Amino acid sequence: MNPESSEARLIDRRIALAREWDELLEQVRALKGFEDFLLPPPIETLLPAAAEGPVVMVNVSAWRCDALIVTTEGVRAVPLPGLSLASAQERLGEYLRVVTGDGLEEREAVLTSTLGWLWDAVAEPVLDALGYRAEPAGTWPRVWWCPTGPLTLLPLHAAGHHGPAGGGRTVMDRVVSSYTPTLRALLEARGERRGVRGPGDARRAGDEAGEGNGDGGGGRMLIVAVPDAPGAPHLENVVTEQEVLTRLFPGDRHTLLAGDDAVRDRVRAELPRHRWVHFSGHGGQDLTDPSQGGLLLRDGKLTVTDIGAAGYQGEFAFLSACKTATGGTALPDEAITITAALHYTGYRQVIGTLWSVHDRLAVVVADSVYQRLTTTGRFLPGDAARALHRAVRPLRTGFAARPSLWVPFTHTGP
C-alpha cells in the first residue's frame, strides 16, 4: 500500500469526522435548553453570582497571575506581581508537609508565614482594589474566593499578619469570606434560594425561615455523632457537641444517628430526608485520590464518591470533622472534597475544615454558630458565613500565635 495514499485517506477521514462532529453539535444546540452545549457560558449570565458581594477568581499560571474580580457590573483584572506559580507550589509543599505532620512548633511557624505571604501576594491587592482597607464600621462586606491551581488548598480566608503587630492587615478583619468551587455553582445556589428551581423550593424557603417540618424531614436536623470510629482516636467532646444540637433542636426537630446507628446505609438513607445535617467525628482525606476522602462512620467511610452519586434538597451541612474541605494534589483545579460534594449535590450552605481540628474547639465553634443561627427561635442557615466568622474571630484573638486552632474552619456557599 502506498504510504502517501494511506496518509491521505486518514486525513480525509479526520476531516469527515470533524464535519460530522460540527453537524451533531448544531443539532444538539438546536434543542431547547441546550443552546450553549459545550460552549462557555456568556459572562453576562454569570454576573448575578456576585449579587451579594464580589467573587474573586485567583488565576495562577506560569506566565502571569491575576485576580479576576467579578461583580454584577462586570469583571476586572487585578495584577498580582507578588504571586507566581513557582512560589505558590513551594508554599503549598511546605504547608502540606506541616499540616500532615506532627511537629507542632514548626507547623505554627509555617502556617503563620503562609498566611502572611497570602496576604502580601494575593489578599491585600484584592481587598485594596475593592476598597476594603479597614475594619467595617457597620455591616461587614462579603467576599467569595474561587482560587485555582495550588491556591485551592491554601487558606485564603485567613490570609494576613495576625496578632498585635499586624495592625488589622488580615482578611478576617475586613470581610466575611466564603468559598465557591465555580461561578456557576454559586449562581445555582443563589437561584435555589430565590425559588427559580421549581415548586419544591417553596418548601425549602419555608425551611430556611424555620417554619414547620414539611414532608420528607424538612425542618429537621440530622445529627450524626461518631466519637469512636474504628482505628481512630476517641473524641471525648463529640458527645458534648451532640448535646448542644439536641438541646437547640429538641424532640421531633432532630434525628440522631449515634453509636451503632451511625453506619453508612443509615446515613445515606437519612440524608435525602433532611434539609439540615451535622456530622461530628473523624474525617479523612487522601491527597492523591481525594474522591476517597470522607467521613468515618461505625462501619467504614462515607466517601466523596458516595455523596456525589446522590442528589439532595439540602439547605445546610456542618461538617465538624477533620479535613472535610481538603482537596487533592493530583487535580488542584478540581474541588474534590466532602464539602464540595455536599454543595454540588444540593446543600447550599456547608461549613467544613481544612485539617484536623481540636476536639474541644470544634464544640466551641459549633455552639457559637448554632446559637447565632437560632437566636430568633428559628433556624436561619442563610447567615452561616457570618455566624462562622463571628465564632472564629474570638479564637483568633485568643490564639493568634497558634493558627492551626482557628484557621481550618471554612464556609462554602451563598
TrEMBL record:
Stretch list, region Disordered: 192-218
CHAT domain ranges (all copies): 114-413
UniProt biased composition (Basic and acidic residues): 192-207
Highest taxon of source: Bacteria
Protein name: CHAT domain-containing protein
InterPro entries: CHAT_dom
Cited Pfam families: CHAT
Source organism of this protein record: Sphaerisporangium aureirubrum
